[in-house]
């Protein structure tokens, strides 16, 4: 089964860092994502998606992310429920973040106000691999004809 979410949107308010009883850092926040299509004559609509980040990702957000920042969020959808103070059952659906990145946005002076990003994904693999120089993809499709017999084709 696949449960993967990728969002790009703006955070609706400054994140507030909280600590659990066991000392884990957590932050809950909402990302506003514009809908792709709107009806003619209507203003663009947005979806407000609740998210939660833990540990180092939460610490990063508390230090570097401010209201209105453009974020790239990766994670999974999780549902949970609890009983509130009045005894009513409350259901919550949220994105549990594996990775949160502040995305580059230029300010009016043409300088970038980019903040470092943090990904709470798998630890870095220090196996000594260094990628080769960037590959050129300019000539992905050659104009040369291929010499293939029709008997070699599966269809």
From TrEMBL:
Gene Ontology BP term (one): DNA replication
GO cellular component terms given for this protein: nucleoid
Compositional bias of kind Polar residues: 108-120, 127-145
Keywords: DNA-binding
Positions of region (Disordered): 108-155
MF terms (GO), sorted A to Z: single-stranded DNA binding
Keyword DNA damage: no
Alphabetical list of PROSITE patterns matching this protein: PROKAR_LIPOPROTEIN, SSB
Residues annotated as signal peptide: none
InterPro entries (alphabetical): NA-bd_OB-fold, Primosome_PriB/ssb, ssDNA-bd
Pfam families: SSB
Subunit structure: Homotetramer.
HAMAP family, sorted: SSB (MF_00984)
Entry protein name: Single-stranded DNA-binding protein
Taxonomic placement: Bacteria, Bacillati, Bacillota, Erysipelotrichia, Erysipelotrichales
């Amino acid at each position: 089964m696949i449960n993967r979410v990728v969002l790009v949107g703006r955070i609706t308010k400054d994140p507030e860092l909280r600590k659990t009883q066991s000392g884990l850092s957590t932050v809950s926040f909402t990302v506003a994502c514009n809908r792709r299509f709107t009806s003619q004559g209507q203003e663009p609509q947005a979806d407000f998606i609740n998210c939660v980040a833990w540990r180092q990702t939460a610490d990063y957000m508390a230090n570097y992310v401010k209201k209105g920042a453009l974020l790239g969020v990766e994670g999974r959808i999780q549902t949970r429920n609890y009983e509130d103070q009045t005894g009513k059952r409350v259901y919550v659906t949220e994105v549990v973040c594996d990775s949160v990145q502040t995305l580059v946005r230029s300010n009016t002076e043409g300088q970038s106000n980019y903040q470092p990003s943090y990904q709470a994904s798998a630890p870095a693999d220090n196996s000594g691999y260094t990628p080769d120089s960037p590959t050129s993809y300019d000539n992905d499709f050659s104009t040369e004809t291929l010499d293939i017999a029709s008997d070699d084709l599966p269809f």
